[in-house]
C-alpha cells in the first residue's frame, strides 16, 4: 500500500503536534514576569534522569557548582528544586509518602505547623530506660559474638545487631523485650528490611504522575508493607489502651496515651492527639530508632576493621577513663572525647541517608576518614563548633525526632562492645567503605 507524499507529511505533522501538546501539558508554565530557575535542560518526558546516573549526590554537587545553590532539574515530568545550602525544612509532596502511615507519618509529612510541633513534644518522656535496655542487648551481643567465635571463628555481626536494636526500640515503645528467636520480633525486622529495599528502589510515579494509574508491582509491595506494619502497631496501641494506668507509665506508647487523654480533658487545648496519630508517632519513632541505629553501627564496625589503629585508640581511652570494672554510661560521654569524635566522623563520612551531608563546602579533605578533625588542639575535648556541622539528623524545626535516642544508642552499643571485644576483618577480605547513595547491608564477616 502506498500513500501520497502529502498524506505522509500530514501524518508526521499530526504526530509531532500531538507529542508536543502532551509534553507541554505536563510542563508547568512559569508565571508572567518570573524567570525559570537556573539548571540543566532535560529531555522530553524523562527530564534529567540520564544525567543523574548511579551517583546522583555527586552529579548534583557538580551541577550546583555550575548553576548555584538553588537550581531546578527535571525528573520525569516533575520539576525538582535542589537546595545545596543549609536551610532544610519540609518534605516534598511525593505520591509514595501518602502511603506511609496512612499519609499521616510525622517523618514524611509536608506539615511543619502546630500539629507537627505538638506531635514531636511527647518524645522526650520514657527515655530514662534507654540505658538499661541498650545495656541488656549489648551484653547479649558480647555473649553471642564470643560464642560464635568459639564455634565458627567468623560471623556476620549485622544479622545479630539488627535484632538487638529492634529489641531496644520495642522495649522503648512497647515496654516489651523479646527473645532473639521470637517470631513476632523477627517479622518486625523482616518488615523493616523489606521496606528499606523497596523504598530504596524508588518509585517513578513520584515524578511521572500518570504512572500512578498503571499497574506497579513495587508500589503494591510498598503499600502492603505499610499496611502490615500499621496493623501491627494498631494492635499494640489497642492493647496498651486497654491496660493503661496513668499512675504506671510503662513506655513511650503509654506516655502518648496519657498526653492524648490530658489534651482531651483540656478543652482549651488547640491541638489534640487522636489514637490514630499515636499509632503514626510510634511508627515514626520506630523507624527513627531502628534503621538509623543499625546503619550507624554497621558503618562503625566497617570503619573500625578498616582502621584498626583507630579501634585501638578508642579501646585505650575506654581502659584509661572507665576500666573494666563497670560498663560505660551516657554520663561518660564527656570523658571519652576520641570516641565521640569517631562517632561524629562516622556520621559525617558514611552514606547514612541521601543528601544529608554537605561534604565539600564544610570540610578539609572530606574524603579522608579522620576523627581528629573534631577534637580541639590539645585532643582532650570535642570541638563543638565542628560537631554542629554534622547534620546527619537534619537541622532546624524538621530535624529527626529520634536524634537523641539515635546518638545515645550508638554511643552505648559501641562503647560496651569495644570495652570487651576487638573486631577484625577475615584474612584476605576487604570492606568497601566507599560512600554512595544508600547503604547495602551485605554480609561482612569478622
Features:
mainly alpha; Cytochrome p450; 2 strands
Approximate helicity band? 40-55%
pLDDT averaged over residues = 78
Cα end-to-end separation: 71 Å
* Integer-rounded radius of gyration: 25 Å
What percent strand?
A: under 5%
Q: Briefly, what CATH class of the largest domain?
A: Mainly Alpha
Order of helices and strands: HHHEEHHHHHHHHHHHH
Task: Give a nutshell description of this structure.
The chain is mainly α.
Can you tell me about this structure?
The chain has two domains: 5-85, no CATH class; 97-420, Cytochrome p450. The chain contains 15 helices and two strands. It has 446 residues and is mostly helical. It has a two-stranded antiparallel sheet with strand order 1-2. The protein has helices at residues 5-26, 49-52, 56-67, 114-120, 130-152, 158-174, 183-200, 217-243, 252-265, 275-306, 308-321, 337-349, 359-362, 384-387, 403-420, and strands at residues 70-75, 78-83. The model is unreliable at 112-116 and 122-126 (pLDDT under 50). The chain is 51% helix and 3% strand. The protein is globular, with a radius of gyration of 25 Å.
What is the fold's blueprint, element by element?
Layout: H1 5-26, H2 49-52, H3 56-67, E1 70-75, E2 78-83, H4 114-120, H5 130-152, H6 158-174, H7 183-200, H8 217-243, H9 252-265, H10 275-306, H11 308-321, H12 337-349, H13 359-362, H14 384-387, H15 403-420
